[in-house]
Amino acid sequence: MSCYLQPTEYQTYGLAPDVTDDWITAASSLIDSHCRRASLNPTQYMERLRLVEGSQTARLSHLPLVSVAPATLPLVAIQARYARPRRGQTVYPVQEEVLWAFSLPGAWTTVDPTTVDFVADTGELIFPLSILGLPYNEVQVAYTAGLATMPGAVKCACAQIVKNAQATPGLNVKTAKLDTMWLQYFSGALLDETVQAMLRPWVSVRMG
Predict the structure, then answer these.
(1) Are residues 140 and 81 in the same domain?
(2) Which ranges in 7-106 belong to alpha helices (H)?
């Protein structure tokens, strides 16, 4: 489970030293929910995306892309589906005969991740053309994304959520275990505009 503040950092970010870990765990869970992702820590995701006709690019939802040792690339595995040629597309007669003879249009093929260019900060993928010149129209990508080092903005947001919760009537109570689902009822007050602004760079947006 994600936990974006360590006990040694509580006072640094303005929390009382006697704050219990369940406050931090609950606040971290709210951050993940707001950012629409499993965790801000490096995590593996799987996405299936359509490619716009005439384009060999796609954009992943969770950012930034990051590799996890021993891997050297954030792209783990990729499959792509060959597009069916349409009138006006540049597929020569001989190529077209080969494509249909091997039932390639509409079929899935494995793509070597090392042949795909990517931009880590934007999640953009640029796919190469196949040897036979037939483009792809859909891809399935397994990749890792997240923050290798947790930035101060996320830690500040986590601390601020705890402060907001402790100042909210009905939540400022002594408890042995906080229920995250209970905090969801107060998410509008706990994740105020300041917190949302801190987290905005890491909110995932479905692009394809």
Answers:
(1) yes
(2) 21-34, 93-101
